[in-house]
Amino acid sequence: MSKQRVLTGITTTGTPHLGNYVGAIRPAIRSSEREDAESFYFLADYHALIKCQDPEQVHQSTREIAATWLALGLNTDKAIFYRQSDVPEIPELCWLLTCMAAKGLMNRAHAYKAAVAANQETGEDPDFGVTMGLYSYPVLMAADILMFNAHEVPVGKDQIQHVEMARDIAARFNHHYGEHFVLPEAKVDEHVAVLQGLDGRKMSKSYGNTIPLFLPEKKLKKHINKIKTNLLEPGDPKDPDDSTVFQIWQAFATPEQTEEMRQAFAEGIAWGEAKKQLFELVNDQLGEARERYEALMANPKPIEEVLHAGAEKARERSRPLLQKLREAVGIRPIG
Ligand code: TRP
Description:
335 residues, mainly alpha, Rossmann fold, Tyrosyl-Transfer RNA Synthetase, 2 domains, two-stranded parallel sheet, 14 helices, 8% strand, binds tryptophan
């Protein structure tokens, strides 16, 4: 039986943080070890341009994210790991799909609707500041997914709509030009923790409450010390289920360690002590990967090589499919 193809993209606009690690990177690396599946993970640098027009930031983030995945041990002999912009068939497919995507469908995309709503709030023209990139972003995402005929697309809840749009576009293409595409499905892993940030809200770059993944030890300690807690004193019993310190602990600890910490909370562990233990746990788990990360950031050449090799593997799939699609739509040699 042929393998399930699992595909997901990472937009290259920020620095990876603990929330990205626990919620996306760690499960993706684990899942890439599955024998019954083939994983496609890519750096969505064309998507980055939609949100970020600072070239240095896009470049730096691409480097950091690539170094992060490699440092954490992604096996690039098994998973196909590439940069979107190294696969020119993706933007070509994007155009073919653009011509099959209903404008009315794009009108319903959350990201676009949010931008329009924000403009209406401030009395601006509804499309103020809306680029065609933002508007047709779901079509590019559909091209990413359909280019490799992915079956499963692991994403956060906010991306489900985009995967559904990819299905819609694929179905319409299939209906019109013949069965070329697998209809992809979003996979939202309910067991994966959505980590809280320093202020207790979801850890997210847009809230500025993150703990970057590969901070130097001292800074990691400092960040962990900044996690918001309440005023309960040492000796006062504390509620683990209302605590960001405990929540992050749980995401890194074994079930036994989690039980021990739950007990320590009940017995009134001091916040300072709980944070110290959290620092040690996280630091121990990330220490070796951090060394590899720093080495890759200091000498990024191997990253570029890995990405090129990944793009070559990806293109072994994308070239023949695109060829077939061009013929299907009527773009073929004359005579
Ligand atoms: N848009 C996704 C995000 O912001 C990233 C992404 C781009 C993606 N292309 C994709 C995810 C294809 C899954 C499949 O998170």
